[in-house]
Design brief:
Length: 221
């Protein structure tokens, strides 16, 4: 039985200390008027990743950023799309900044919304979003991927705010600073500083070369 292939994107960033996702409001059936993840059908001569980048640009006006991008999972339950037998490949993208999206193609609106305030979504996109958020949270447990939400140079306080937003939990600032700066390969000082709270200089860091960390590293203590 023939079937179609689509791509969907879970685009996450941190805005105003909250984990946010990029959503579009559908302008056409099915689920016209409902919010959904950006995405669409893969063209016959198109690579999956190229399709994801194209759909993101067409539906939201957000062009492929220098951000972390990875395949999340494949979803193919019968009936997930009322138009046909459709299998979708979902991507997870983590952005250090939240560019202002512009609706286009078959999207009536494109907006960043806090994950905690997302309304019911079209298709099975609530499940895909949930899986994407859980992947991001888990990756912060065992890798230094939180830096993907930060600019190239950042303070430890900014990095901690990312963890707090993604995990929805408060972390002790002193313990976090100690663990982040004492773990080999986690962050690397740049030798520069910026003005921090109350005018105090704050040391700037960049992402270190480590690719994996012990799970309890930053959540405990």
């Amino acid at each position: 039985m023939p079937f179609a292939v689509t791509v969907d994107l879970v685009m996450l960033t941190v805005r105003a200390d909250a984990l946010c996702v990029l959503l579009i409001r559908r302008a056409i059936p099915p689920h016209e008027g409902a919010y959904a993840l950006p995405g669409g059908f893969v063209l016959d001569d198109e690579d999956l990743t190229d399709a994801a980048i194209r759909e993101l640009s067409e539906e939201t006006g957000v062009h492929h950023p220098a951000a972390h991008l990875e395949q999340l999972a494949t979803y193919g339950a019968p009936g997930r799309d009322p138009r046909a037998r459709v299998v979708t490949v979902a991507y997870l993208a983590l952005l250090p900044e939240a560019p202002t999206p512009t609706a286009g193609s078959d999207a009536a609106e494109a907006v960043w919304l806090p994950v905690a305030e997302v309304p019911p979504l079209a298709f099975d996109h609530e499940r895909i979003l949930r899986d994407g958020v859980e992947r991001a949270r888990a990756k912060l447990e065992y890798s230094p991927l939180a830096a993907a939400f930060c600019p190239p140079e950042f303070t430890i306080a900014e990095l901690r705010q990312v963890y707090e937003a993604v995990w929805s939990a408060r972390l002790d600032p002193r313990n976090f600073h100690r663990k982040a700066t004492s773990t080999p390969g986690f962050v690397v000082p740049t030798g520069r500083s910026t003005t921090g709270d109350r005018g105090r200089p704050a040391q700037l860091f960049k992402r270190g070369p480590a690719t994996a960390l012990y799970p309890p590293l930053l959540r405990a203590g």
